[in-house]
Specification:
single chain; alpha/beta; eleven-stranded parallel sheet; about 15% strand
Amino acid sequence: MRLGLALGYWGRGPDPRHLELARAAERLGYDSVWTAEAWGSDAFTALTWIAAHTSRIKLGTGIAQMAARTPTATAMHALTLDHLSGGRLLLGLGLSGPQVVEGWYGRPFPKSPLTATREYVDVIRQVLRRKGPVELDGAFHPHPYLGADGTGLGKPLKPITHPLRADLPLLLGAEGPKNIAQTTRIADGWLPLYWSPQRTDVYRASLSQAPEGFLIAPMARAVVCDDVAEGLLPVKAMLGFYIGGMGHAAKNFHADLMARMGFEEEARRVQQLFLEGRRQEAVLAVPDAFADEISLVGPRERIAERLELWRTGPVTDLLVTAPDPDTLRVLAELNS
C-alpha cells in the first residue's frame, strides 16, 4: 500500500504549511501529494506550485470538480501540468452535488450523473490520446456543439500540444453504488470519500468488476497524539460539515453514504442539527466510532495496529491528511 499526502483546499487563505508538508512527504518516500477544490482555491494552481518545488512525488487532484471546467479545459490543464512536471500528474475528478454545481458554478446539475460523467471522461480520453479531432454525440458534452442556440460553425479539433502521456491516470470520486461500478469500467482508479477497513463489504458489489491494477485511494485523517478523543475532533468537524452542510436536506450524497455504512440514524441527526444552524451540536453528534473507523488517530502503537487493517484490504494508496511532518514520518516508518 502506497502512501500519499492529501492537502485539501485552502481555507481563508493559503496554508503556509502545505509546501513544507509536500517536501517532507517527498523526502519520506510518499508516492503522491493531492490538492482539492470546493468554492475557493482551485486544485491545479496549488498543485503546479508544489510541482515546481518537488522533483519526484506524483501530483494528484483530489478532486477537481467537473462543473468548474469543460472537459477539454480540464484536459488542457492536465496535459500542461503533466508536461511541466515530467509526467507526474494523477487526474482526480468528481461531479460534486447540486448545491455546489448550481449555487457556485451557476449551471444545472445533470439529470443523469452517470451519463454526464461518462461523457466527460470520454472527451478527456480523446484529447489525451490525440488520435483525431474530438467528436462526441453526447447529451451533456457534445463536440462540436450543435445546439439550436449555437452558430452551427463548430469544428472538431484535436489538441495543438501533443500530450506527454496518452494513458495519464484518471481517477473518479464516486459515492453511489452505480457510480462506483461505472468508475471501475471507465477510470483507472477510485477516490472514496470515506473508507472504513472494517466495512469493506459496503463496496464489494460495486468493485466486483474492477480490473487488475485498478487504484483505490481513500483519504484519511492521521495524527499521532496521546488523546484519541481530542485527535478525532477535526475528523468530526469535517464530517459534520460534509454531512450537514455539503448538500440539501432532500439530496445529500455524503449523508447517504454515511447511512449506507451503518450510521443512518446518526447521519440524519447530524444533518438535521446542521441545517437548523446548530453546527457545534452537529459536530458533537458525529459518532466517535465512525470518525475513528475512517481515520488513524492516537499513539504510535495504536496507529500501527490500525494501519494493518488498511494494509490487508483492497486499498492501493492511502492518502493521509496530516497536520505535521512527525505524523508523516511515523506513518512512513510503519508502512515500510
